[in-house]
UniProtKB/TrEMBL annotation:
SMART domains: HTH_LUXR, REC
Residues bearing the modification 4-aspartylphosphate: 59
This protein's name: Response regulator transcription factor
Pfam families in the record: GerE (PF00196), Response_reg (PF00072)
Keywords in alphabetical order: DNA-binding, Phosphoprotein, Transcription, Transcription regulation
Domain HTH luxR-type, first and last residues per copy: 151-216
Keyword DNA-binding attached: yes
Chain segments annotated as transmembrane: none
PROSITE patterns to which the protein is assigned, alphabetical: HTH_LUXR_1 (PS00622), HTH_LUXR_2 (PS50043), RESPONSE_REGULATORY (PS50110)
Coiled coil regions in record: none
The organism's place on the tree of life at top rank: Bacteria
Residue ranges constituting the Response regulatory domain according to the UniProt record: 8-124
Amino acid sequence: MSADGPIRIVVVDDHPLMREGLRALVASLPDVEVVGEAGDGEAARREAQLTQPDIVIMDLHMPGTNGVDATRAILRTTPATRVLVLTMFEDDDSVFGAMRAGASGYLVKGAQQDEIVRAIRSVAAGHAVFGPSVARRIIDFFAGAARAAPAAEPFPELTAREREVLDLIAAGHTNLAIARHLVISVKTVSNHISAIFAKLQVADRAEAIIRARQAGLGNKP
């Protein structure tokens, strides 16, 4: 979008009434204009290539080429264009399919007119915009992924046995107590500790304990 020009939009929806409604909404805005429209994904791709719009308002489920594939094709051929999805679907496949294709915004049909207008202007300014229900779905998805992800082991440079010895050191155990706990010799414990100091580049037991406790070790009795 030029600094002194309107936001140029292509409206894509297979329902003529929906396209007409969006065109009327855009026509009421002084800084936005419709430069094209299409009723399916392939026509949307051609229209975007012809008109080079700032934004394509994209339905997803249409006959022929769907909105996700059309979004991907448009952004490949006209990378300066941004896509704002406006659809009646908010299932995971639709939402994340559109995001992976490169959509900059996602609203569900039924959104208020002022919400659509804000989304148009925000997407034109380079922001990502999601309706409340879609935003909640995205947050829940990533929160679930974070809960499911296993916590990274601290000090990956250590072997499992060395990490176990460090955990016991951080808990305040002596070498003899560690040897008895792990059923190994005191000399073997000393060898593990020497390896730990070298790998962690610490000077002494106190520094090793500080590093270990900062990483969450030493909490076991």
